[in-house]
Amino acid sequence: MSTEAQQPQDAGNEVAVANGDVPAEGDQPQGQQQAAPQSKMESFFAMTKSLILRALIIYFVSSFFRRGQPVANNANEKSPAAAGPKIHAWNYFENGTLFDLHVWLSDDIDQVNFQQKSNLLWLQEDLTYGDWKSGPNRDGTYYHHVNVKATPKLMTNGSIYLHVFVTKQGESPDPNSPYFARNSVMGHQTRQLNKFKKIRVNRNYNLLASEQEKLAFELAQVNLKDTIVSHWHPNLTLNLVVDQTNWAQGTVPPPLDEFVKFVDNGKTYLPIVFINDYWNLQREYYPINETTPELPLHLTFQPIGMFKWQLYAAQQMKNKFAGNMLGELMASGGGEESDEDQDSLKETMLETNIYLLGLTIAISILHSVFELLAFKNDIQFWNNRQSLEGLSVRSVFFGVFQSLIVLLYVLDNETNFMIRVSCFIGLGIEVWKIHKVVDINYNTDHKLLGIFPKISFKDKGSYSESATKEYDNLAFKYLGWVCFPLLIGYFVYSLVYNEHKGWYSFVLNMLYGYLLTFGFIMMTPQLFINYKLKSVAHMPWRMMTYKFLNTFIDDIFAFVIKMPTMYRLGCFRDDIIFFVFLYQRWQYRVDLKRVNEFGFSGEMEEQAAQKKLEGTTPALKDKPAVEANAKPKSAQDKKKD
């Protein structure tokens, strides 16, 4: 990992001023650090699964749109890779080469004002290429601290760039210098130091406020809108790739091809400079304005190997990919939430033991497999279901309502695109279950609004003719005595103490919070039906087993990952229900009269086997009899035949 997380101070600090004036010592930026935003507390393995899914989608889409080698228009126009035999280039810096590091500041992405000496932030001389044991910590790493004066242009959403040059010892990147690098052969990389982030206006208010308070709030919000503001982070790492790979021009795979620059007709490539900000957490950025006249910058120079560089470069390409149209679609609702997920992932990687981290990733993959298996068996269960005896039909309709509320909630809030898709698919599955539990009739003679046919629902015979319907109604009656007081109490609490964007948002937030807190009790009607029927043969045990395994994984990570105590306790709610199901399975022994999840009972299976046996027995009995009564043919009979 990069040493960017550490902040050592250099004794020989320099002060760079954009206009050449040196500020007084002791001046410190004011109001630099804002309060860290509240991030959503979700387990690390859930984030890992989300990142794996995004990576797969990005890979397949990029592979689909990846362009091949350009086709030559004529015989004289050929790509470097196709023009004769490939030339394997050598690194311009061999191991042991002495070089200098030049770090310049500029407000232009393409040019540097070398005449303004105050723009030189750092000059580190007499470095050795391939040296991993120099520096204050004997690991090849050097540190430097400098204060950058924020110009009026930078305070008003201007941009500022860092230019990093790597030259051989004694050479200069300045074209006007007598020591200018021969033939401009030197490593060079540019990076924008500031980052533009959107600051969103909080438009929530208390719905019980008086009309005068609401009017004052609306007047205050009239001229406010979401703004794009330039932000600053004080840390940056400068990596020099130490590697002697013999690259061939035109064959360097992306995204490495953006950094490998060839000279001398492809015979040599320049030293690879990589500016790394991967470990800069988004919550550590702060706005650049009048309260920040000086901006601290902690620079770290560190050599890096090929493997680690490939990982960082791939991550940087992913961030660029997330900035185009598909990236906006993937992170619909803004990149802020994606940044929060990235921060949570990075913090976990920094703070978690490496063995625990590996175990977490492995279990996350296992968790995804269990989810897919539970999803597959749930659909298979309802698709093959022949009888509804013992199943709670009302719970299916409540599942549709619950999925609809969750979908509307994530649409009302700025949520990741993948979460919206998963909620939409979940709602579709719940709606699909309806026609499996009831008979749906479409009356085209009576249309709603003259367009939509009137829809009516009728209970299936296997549900209404059994005692299941009676027990189901009774269970929801008892459940209503518990749920409605809780719903009213949560309604009053949310209305009085929470702020909302409006009444629609309030209703969605209230229902979503209620379902999240008390949704587990909606599984109790099935427990009640099982208790009345004294049977659990109709339950989808395979699907429930997969879900229980995932719940068990949730319980483990509830104590591994840092999260609120109430959230940890909430992870055990489903466990209680499932253990009651297990107790019922143990208590209610196998009953051949009860139907299973496929609509068959043990007696039905025995009857079918008996009928099959009766249908084949006469044929088997007659065949030996015929053969026994038949006389063997004589030699004359055979001759006649």
Automatic annotation (TrEMBL):
Residues 609-625 have a biased composition (Basic and acidic residues). The lineage of its organism: Eukaryota, Metazoa, Ecdysozoa, Arthropoda, Hexapoda. Pfam families: CLPTM1. It is found in: Membrane. InterPro entries: CLPTM1 (IPR008429). Belongs to the CLPTM1 family. Keywords: Membrane, Transmembrane, Transmembrane helix. It comes from the Eukaryota. Residues 1-37, 609-641 are annotated as: Disordered. This is Cleft lip and palate transmembrane protein 1 homolog. The gene is 106091624. Residues 1-10 have a biased composition (Polar residues). GO terms for cellular component: endomembrane system; membrane. Residues 28-37 have a biased composition (Low complexity). The chain crosses the membrane at residues 44-65, 354-375, 395-411, 478-497, 503-523. The keyword Mitochondrion does not apply. It is a multi-pass membrane protein.
